[in-house]
Design a protein that fits this description.
10 Kd Chaperonin, Protein Cpn10, Chain O; two-stranded antiparallel sheet; six-stranded antiparallel β-sheet
């Protein structure tokens, strides 16, 4: 399994359902990028200026909303993930 460092998190992206306009299926490049996903792994946290560590707000299992073009796409053992900094996460979906 992937273990992110510092303030990074690994997200399994939730693909948006295929939408149609007037019965016409949209091409993949016409669809918006997904912006929600499930946190698979979270790093240990931020290192502050005084050397102490602040833990992350998100945790494994959280469903989150993140910036559309944030992070880096990663493929591990045949599964696609997104690795990003916690600052790129907008909200936790409850």
């Amino acid at each position: 399994m992937l273990k992110p460092l510092g303030d990074r998190v690994i997200i399994e992206v939730t693909e948006a359902a295929e939408q149609t306009v007037g019965g016409i299926v949209l091409a993949n490049n016409a669809k918006d990028k997904p912006v929600t996903g499930k946190v698979i792994a979270a790093g240990s946290g931020y290192v502050l200026n005084d050397g102490s560590k602040q833990s992350l707000t998100v945790k494994e299992g959280d469903t989150v909303l993140f910036d559309k073009y944030a992070g880096q796409e990663v493929t591990f053992e045949g599964t696609d993930y997104l690795a990003l900094h916690e600052k790129d996460i907008v909200a936790i979906v409850e």
